């Protein structure tokens, strides 16, 4: 049993809506007023998607980008201003293996994660004068969470009917531990996943032709299962 020395003054909980970008500066200022500094920002908000592009309303893609991408970089902007003044800090973004590959039924989600990957990789190059500000991209594979229960579908108001079994996914506490290890060691990018999903990441990185072949095989079966109401265990369930 670990005993914490944290008191009430060491904890501050603020309600935050990533889509309400006008509130982000005030939220960052509230944290600074309470603690006096921000050492680490962990961007961990977002929603996934499970629907075919041809069946999906474009409003869904707009909502995904507004939440996953624009909301994240908006909050980052106000925190980064403070870190630049201090010349120190860590910005950790929970991306996804979907930020480095593509997968069926998640085109909007993949797009938002690719956008985050490109943004933070570019931002890192703009901060070369601040070597103590770390930009860290965490790319988990399937992890046990409620992200599937809350996915976007083909309509904004439609909820998913069957979220499937999560027992095959990495336990949440292991993903958190590996994320903390990656953050403590200032890794620019970390892929956090069990096999066989991790092997697919390596294929996409080093043997893309084989990756396309494999994803086409897996994708065809996944789409067939999706249409028949069966939940499959594909990496895009992360």
From TrEMBL:
Gene Ontology molecular function terms on file: oxidoreductase activity
A Pfam family this chain is assigned to: adh_short
UniProt entry keywords in alphabetical sequence: Oxidoreductase
Gene3D superfamilies named in the record: NAD(P)-binding Rossmann-like Domain
Family: Belongs to the short-chain dehydrogenases/reductases (SDR) family.
Name listed for the protein in its UniProt record: DHRS7 reductase
Chain's gene name: Dhrs7
